[in-house]
Write a structure and sequence with these properties.
Order of helices and strands: HHEEHEEEHHHH
Strand content: 15-25%
Shape: globular
Mean pLDDT: 93
Number of helices: 7
Bound molecules: FE2/S2 (inorganic) cluster
Structural class: alpha+beta
Strand order of the largest sheet: 2-1-5-3-4
């Protein structure tokens, strides 16, 4: 059915159409030509090799693919790559400082055992960063709300909450 639709109404050129985009990625300006249908996740992982951003559900449900878009969290698996034109994107690779030191949120996650398999961790850490940038001293309820879109199958969340509270104290 889908193939029939493409044959009838959507020429292959639509799927291979390319466009040049310019944006800021982890503090550096970047310009490249991409296929117009790419998601931001495909752009980051497949075109730019930034594999710190993970693909879980691929449907906007789990938060594993979370990145920051002008400082706000987005699920990159369902976010059109073309939307980044002129914007700022931050991935987990962009959280370390110039010397390669981990961000305090990352250190706290390690210190408190808030990482087990680690698959949810990049997205979780970026959600925490967005939360603390907007609200430096969130309540526990606000913390839980801030990470509500990031599912973790391993930790039970207790260590994650502890790590976030520790990161807040260190600020
Ligand atoms: S992989 Fe994007 S929300 Fe699950
Ligand atoms: S540490 Fe495994 S999913 Fe969160």
């Amino acid at each position: 059915m889908l193939n029939f639709w493409i044959f009838e109404f959507g020429p292959k050129e639509v799927l291979t159409m390319k466009k040049t985009i310019s944006f800021t990625l982890n503090g550096e300006p970047i310009e490249l030509e991409i296929e117009a249908h790419l998601t931001l996740l495909q752009l980051l992982r497949d075109k730019l090799g930034l594999t710190g951003t993970k693909e879980g559900c691929g449907m906007g449900e789990c938060g594993a693919c979370t990145v920051l878009f002008d400082g706000k969290t987005v699920n990159s698996c369902i976010f059109p790559a073309l939307e980044v034109e002129g914007k700022k994107v931050t991935t987990i690779e962009g959280l370390t400082d110039a010397q390669g030191n981990l961000h305090p949120i990352q250190k706290a996650f390690i210190d408190f055992g808030a990482i087990q398999c680690g698959f949810c961790t990049p997205g979780m850490v970026l959600s925490v960063k967005a939360l603390l940038d907007e609200s430096p001293k969130p309540t526990e309820e606000e913390i839980r709300h801030g990470i509500a879109g990031n599912l973790c199958r391993c930790t039970g969340y207790l260590q994650i909450i502890q790590a976030i509270k520790a990161a807040i104290e260190q600020r």
